[in-house]
Amino acid sequence: MVKHQPLQVYERQLCLSCLTGIYGCRWKRYQRSHDNSTKWECLWFIILFLTFILLLCWAFFWWSARNDYSEFNWLLYNRSGDWTDSTVAIVTTTAASFTYVAFLMILALCHIAVGQQLNLFWLHKTLVTAALLSTIAGLIYINRLWGDEWNTIVISLQSMGPFLHIGALAAITMLAWLVAGQVIHVERTNSQALLLLGYLGAILCLYLAPLAITAPCLMDSDHLSPRPAVIGRRGAPTLAPENTFLSFTKALQQKVSGLEADVTISLDGVPFLMRDHSLRRTTDVDRLFPKRQFDGASSFSWAELSTLNAGQWFLRDDPFWIVQYMTPKERAQVANQSVCRLEEMLQLAVESNCSVLFHLRRPPLGHPRHVSWVNDTLQVVLRSGTPQKRVMWTPDWDREVVRQVASGFQQTSEEKLSTEALQDQGILQVYLRYNQVTRSDLRYEFSANNLSVTLYTVNEPWLYSALWCSGVSSVSSDAPHVLRNVPYPVWLMSPGEYCLIWILSDLISFAIIIGIFIFQKWRMSGVRSYNPEQIMLSAAVRRSSQDVSLMKEKLIFSEINNGIGSSEELSLYTGNGYDCYANEGIAC
């Protein structure tokens, strides 16, 4: 008599097929395995995890540095001589790489959660390696070119600390399901203890992290300083060509309290406004004076400078992606801009009753005004009728002479010196980059000694809010129209409110984690309590666990190995939706 054996009928597992197919190109059932992952694949999981962490830091850096994208592009221009918005390509590539690696990381964690063997596809390995190496190369390059920007990460972490803490707490709470499953599945006690202790240590660190968070906007509203004044840095360069009359007009329309400009002395002693060493980027000097386009700006006479156009480059390069939103009238105004004299800006400041701050560039040796450059500028300021108390004088050269001629000038230092040194020099104000001072410097050093602080360049609302809460008196901005729409800090929370949120978040997280561990323990203990007579290949169980499936397979193959004595011992599973037989020796 021919003996028959019952076959195990598998139901379709579309999600599992997609999971193993996308991660390891294992789309077929026979390609999958519940065996432990090889050491090689474990190593690739570690590489994937390190790439994810590195890309997360890289992406967070560029998110924090978006306030200074224009500065980064200008640094590249000084090195290459060509103006391009390189941040667009960098940010796009970073976002795509991080999304891709994060997706692979989620798939790898899902493999671990369902007990599937890790087997990263070779194409993914190649792309992950490329992402890792390119990110490392980018970090090294940025550290050499723009090393000062790393401090921005610290500022952003302090500013967004409470929210980052809650996000990290939510992420590690969700990992409890994976950790609980692994702790219960692992048979070796040492491995269980090591995994559990590591997870509990991370949880404990996050639970106590608020003790180290010192966000500037964690304060009572009664202690909030007055809103910092906004100075238009080179006017409003995101709305009009920098250092032009139109740019300063646009800045005044945004209710700025002062105007800031870069001053260069022409060959015949006329102070004019120009940021760059040459005229190539912001004028059409290559068209009118092609042989002199690489010469210094101070080597031109005012008669030559007045013939240059200082607005067409803005329409051509569109450095701030604003031209497409301009009306035809606005574009015509931009196209007709010329090089602006210091006298014109001062006259505009007098009419608007606002302060002025300018940076002087000394002409090179051999220039007719190499010695008299400070006096040339000083005489223009005095003749303009600008109230001396509204002039922030920054040059250290001949500062004593300037103080004797114009005692009302607000002497301003561009260096971070000790308060004693500043007071000895008669300095009343300090003009520094925003990442050069700390909150304690503002609160206990400068404010305590009646020193006013102006920080540059502040373009983002989150940074403006953080400096506002820190007690800064004024900021210099390329985007005064953006800061005008920040009448109050982006967020302000009292310590008591945050303490309540902190405790509630920790309690909710702890309760969820305990519940997950209890549920996982109960679920697995229920599976392990089955005996062979209770295990049935039932279609009613649509999504059986890994352990149930393994025990079903063991039960079937044990019956096959033991053999069945007669036809009466055959089992017909038609009641459970199965009606399948096989000749002896046929395997599923």
Would you write up a description of this structure?
- The protein has helices at 14-24, 39-64, 69-80, 86-114, 122-145, 150-159, 161-174, 176-185, 189-208, 245-253, 285-288, 302-305, 312-317, 328-335, 342-352, 373-383, 399-405, 419-424, 439-446, 461-470, 480-483, 495-528, 546-562, and strands at 4-6, 229-233, 258-265, 271-273, 355-361, 391-393, 410-413, 429-433, 452-456, 474-477, 581-583.
- It is of the alpha/beta class and 588 residues long.
- It has an 8-stranded parallel barrel. A two-stranded antiparallel sheet has the order 1-11.
- Helix 16 links the parallel strand 5 and strand 6.
- It starts with a strand and ends in a 5-residue tail after the last strand.
Strand arrangement in the largest pleated sheet = 2-3-5-6-7-8-9-10
Beta strand count: 11
Largest sheet: 8 strands, parallel, barrel
- Count of helical stretches: 23
- Mean pLDDT, as a whole number? 86
Structural class: alpha/beta
Give the overall shape, derived from the CA principal axes. elongated
CA distance, first residue to last residue: 22 Å
Measured on Cα atoms, how large is the radius of gyration?
35 Å
Strand content: 5-15%
Helix content: 40-55%
The unreliable regions are 529-545, 563-588
